[in-house]
Design goal:
With 476 residues, the chain is mainly α. Helices cover 63% and strands 5% of the residues. Helix 5 crosses helix 11, helix 6 packs across helix 10 and helix 8 crosses helix 10.
C-alpha cells in the first residue's frame, strides 16, 4: 500500500477515508508494476493507472458529500483540497510533482483582470452550489469581485488616456498649428466621450433601451469622439509631413497602438459591465429550477452538474492525444493563473470580433475554467465555458489558442468563418471534424504568429483568414 492520503477536515468521515484507502491500495499495485522490468507488468501498470485516475471523481464526490452534509451556505476548500481538486495532487509518492511545481506559488497565483471571468475548478464547484441553493456566489481565492474589477479597469483606462493625451500633445506641439485651447478641447473630447461613444458604436443594451433624450445625448457624444479622432488623424498626418522635424513611422506606430489600446479597453469595460447582469440572470435561472428541491435533492443536483462537466473535461486530453487522467503528472509543471489569463486577454485584443458573435449576445462572454489534467483547451457548448487544462500540452500558448479557437468555431452560428474556411483548397473533401481540427491549428498560428506580423500560413489560408477576421460591426 502506498503512503496514506489524509484530508484533515474529513479524517473521521468513513466515506472519504474508504476512498483514500482504495486509492492507496491501487497506487501500491501501480508502483509495484511500474518498477518491474517485465513487459506484462508494464501493461498492468497502465491499466492500474487508469483505474487510479478514475478514483479522482470518487474522491471528489466523497469530499463534496462530506462538506454538503451540513448544508453550508457556501463551499470553501482548504489548500490541501484545492491542490487535489484543481491540480490532481494526492501526495508526493502517488502523484510526484514536477520539480518546477511550486504548490504555494500555484495556489497563490491570481487571475489577471480583463473581459473574461476566470475560475479554478474548485471555484466552479462552489459557484454551482451557490446557484443551486440560491446563495451569493463566492469570490474566487484567485480573483476579485466584479465591482473591484471594474474599478481597476476604469483606473487603467484613465491612465492609458492620460499617457495617450500626453504623447499627442507632444506631437501636435511640434507643428504648432493648433492653439492650446483647441488642443485641450481635443484631448478632453476623446477622453470624456469614449465610453458613451463606444456604447453607441456597439449598440449595446443600455443604448438600445435608453429614452430618446438619453439616446440623443449618447449619439452626440459619439459624434464628438469621431470628430476629435478625425482631427487627431489630421494632426498626425501634418506631423509626418513636417519639414523640420517629421514624425517617424516607428513613433507613429507606437502612438497608434497606444490609442487603439484605449478603444479596446473601453470595449472590454462595457463587456464586463454587461456580464454582471447576464451572470446574475443565469444564476437566478438555476436557482429557480432548484427552488422546490429538498436539501438532499440539491446535493444530488450538484453531483449531476459535475457529471455533465466530466464528459467535457476529458476532451482536452483527447484533442492533444495525451494521457486522459486528471491526476497530477510528474513530467509537467502547471501554468500559473496570472500568466495564462493574461495570455487570453492578449489574444482577445487581437480578435475582438469574437465578442460580436450571436452566442455572446445571447449568453454573455464564456467563463474560463482551469481544470486538472493535460491537453489543449476546449469549449463546452452546453455550459458556455472555455476549459483550460492546468498542465497544457506542448505549450500554454497553444493550449490557450486551441481553447479560444474551439469557441470561435463552435460559436460561428452565422457561418462567417465556416463558409469561408471550407473554400480553402486543402480543406476540400474534409469531414466536419477534420475541418474543425484543421481550423484550431490554423487559428493557433494566426493568433500567435500572423497577427504579430509573421507570415506562417499558406497564401490561400492567409488570405482567407484576412477575410474571416476582417473588422466587423460590434453589437451587444
Amino acid at each position: 500500500m502506498a503512503a496514506k492520503i489524509e484530508f484533515k477536515r474529513w479524517e473521521n468521515v468513513p466515506e472519504v477515508v474508504n476512498v483514500t484507502e482504495e486509492i492507496c491500495k491501487l497506487a501500491g499495485k501501480y508502483l509495484q508494476y511500474a518498477s518491474s522490468n517485465k513487459s506484462e507488468d508494464k501493461s498492468q501498470a497502465r491499466k492500474t493507472w487508469g483505474q487510479l485516475s478514475d478514483k479522482y471523481w470518487d474522491l471528489l464526490f466523497a469530499i463534496l458529500d462530506a462538506q454538503t452534509e451540513s448544508f453550508p451556505s457556501e463551499l470553501v476548500f482548504d489548500d490541501q483540497e484545492r491542490l487535489f481538486i484543481n491540480f490532481g495532487f494526492l501526495n508526493d509518492e502517488i502523484t510526484p510533482r514536477n520539480k518546477n511545481f511550486d504548490a504555494a506559488l500555484a495556489l497563490g497565483s491570481k487571475f489577471s483582470l480583463g473581459v473574461f471571468g476566470y475560475r479554478a475548478f474548485s471555484d466552479f464547484i462552489a459557484d454551482c452550489w451557490g446557484m443551486i441553493t440560491g446563495n451569493p456566489l463566492p469570490t474566487s481565492p484567485s480573483g476579485v469581485k466584479t465591482e473591484e474589477k471594474l474599478k481597476i479597469l476604469d483606473e487603467r483606462l484613465l491612465s492609458l488616456q492620460e499617457q495617450r493625451n500626453s504623447e499627442l500633445l507632444k506631437i501636435i506641439s511640434r507643428s504648432k498649428n493648433m492653439t492650446g485651447g483647441d488642443v485641450e478641447s481635443l484631448v478632453s473630447d476623446m477622453s470624456k466621450t469614449l465610453i458613451s461613444a463606444t456604447k453607441v458604436t456597439m449598440r449595446n443594451k443600455e443604448y438600445r433601451e435608453a429614452k430618446e433624450d438619453v439616446k440623443q445625448a449618447m449619439s452626440q457624444n459619439r459624434f464628438r469622439y469621431n470628430e476629435a479622432e478625425r482631427i487627431m488623424e489630421t494632426q498626425l498626418s501634418i506631423a509626418q509631413k513636417d519639414e523640420e522635424d517629421p514624425l517617424g513611422l516607428p513613433e507613429l506606430e507606437v502612438f497608434t497602438a497606444l490609442h487603439e489600446s484605449t478603444k479596446i479597453l473601453a470595449r472590454k469595460i462595457i463587456y464586463c459591465q454587461q456580464e454582471s447582469d447576464k451572470l446574475r440572470r443565469r444564476a437566478e435561472k438555476i436557482t429557480q429550477g432548484c427552488v422546490q428541491f429538498s436539501q438532499q435533492m440539491m446535493r444530488k443536483e450538484l453531483k449531476n452538474m459535475l457529471v455533465k462537466k466530466k464528459e467535457y473535461m476529458a476532451v482536452p486530453a483527447k484533442a492533444a492525444r495525451c494521457e486522459q487522467s486528471l491526476l497530477c503528472p510528474q513530467d509537467a509543471e502547471p501554468v500559473l493563473y496570472a500568466a495564462a489569463s493574461r495570455a487570453i486577454e492578449e489574444m482577445s485584443d487581437l480578435d475582438m470580433n469574437m465578442f460580436a458573435v450571436p452566442r455572446i449576445r445571447m449568453y454573455g462572454i464564456p467563463q474560463v475554467i482551469f481544470i486538472p489534467g493535460q491537453g489543449f483547451g476546449t469549449y463546452d457548448w452546453a455550459d458556455h465555458t472555455i476549459l483550460l487544462p492546468v498542465f497544457p500540452t506542448t505549450s500554454a500558448e497553444k493550449a490557450i489558442a486551441y481553447g479560444v479557437g474551439t469557441f470561435r468555431w463552435d460559436s460561428d452560428e452565422d457561418r462567417v468563418l465556416k463558409n469561408a474556411y471550407e473554400t480553402i483548397k486543402d480543406n476540400k473533401g474534409k469531414s466536419i471534424l477534420e475541418m474543425a481540427t484543421s481550423f484550431y491549428k490554423d487559428y493557433f498560428l494566426w493568433i500567435t504568429k500572423e497577427k504579430k506580423g509573421y507570415r506562417i500560413l499558406p497564401r490561400d489560408t492567409h488570405k482567407t483568414f484576412l477575410q474571416m477576421f476582417a473588422p466587423r460591426k460590434q453589437e451587444d
